[in-house]
Amino acid sequence: MPEETRDLSAVRTALRRLYKDISGYDIPRDEEKAIRERRGSPTYGEINVGSVQKLIEHLELGADDVVYDLGSGVGKMVLQVAMTTPVRKCVGIEMAPSRHQGARAALARARELGLLRARECEFYRGDFMEAALADATVIYTCSTTFSDRLMRRLTLKLSTLSPGLRFITTRHPIVRHGFEEVGELRLDMSWHRRSPVFIYRLPSKSRERRAPRSNIKRP
After folding, report:
1. How many angstroms separate the CA atoms of 202 and 108, rounded?
2. Does domain 3-201 have CATH number 3.40.50.150?
3. Domain layout of the chain by residue ranges
4. What is the gyration radius of the CA atoms in the chain, in angstroms?
5. CA–CA distance from 211 to each of 131, 140, 143, 216 (Å)?
6. The pTM is what?
7. With contact defined as beta carbons under 8 Å apart, do 85 and 61 qualify?
8. Each residue of 12-57: pLDDT tens digit?
9. Could you give the C-alpha distances from 149 to 35, 38, 39, in angstroms and in order?
10. Cα three-residue angle 133-72-175, rounded to 5 degrees
């Protein structure tokens, strides 16, 4: 990726180009229905470009990191990380087909333009509760509209992953399942300025368990 695109204004310009005709705010009713039937929420929102940069700097993402965005929408957060950091892998998982296709289209454009710094960047369609996340070092999720039940299930699932995992969420876990809170940021989102973002870490002393097998199909 060219050096100049690491500048925040250049990143904004690049993302506008990649997403010139792509939006995640409106999806077909059948997709909304399918998401609700899986106990998810079709409500859409995005973390701002400047806020992603602040999160990247706070986490000090590096070449050994594998970053997942659970409920990645059209993939803006994933692509910004992939464009501005040399992480080993950056992955988005999204249930809505139309949002997933938008993310895939933006990724194809980014590859054509040579904008990616991450060694790997992919988007998968499916329920993130069924995904294998064993290689994750950082997991982000915009969980503001998640039900208590989903937060419990998600936190339990993530607690089976490797010690040292950092879990970034826009709402507190209902039960921490061994995670320790290690930070809190106030970041601008599409729905609210200075929205709280909580950072948890799975301590090294936590017992590892086998991660669930994935039912997410690769594209």
Report:
1. 34
2. yes
3. 3-201
4. 16
5. 9, 18, 21, 14
6. 0.89
7. yes
8. 999 999 999 999 999 999 999 998 888 888 889 999 999 999 999 9
9. 15, 12, 9
10. 60
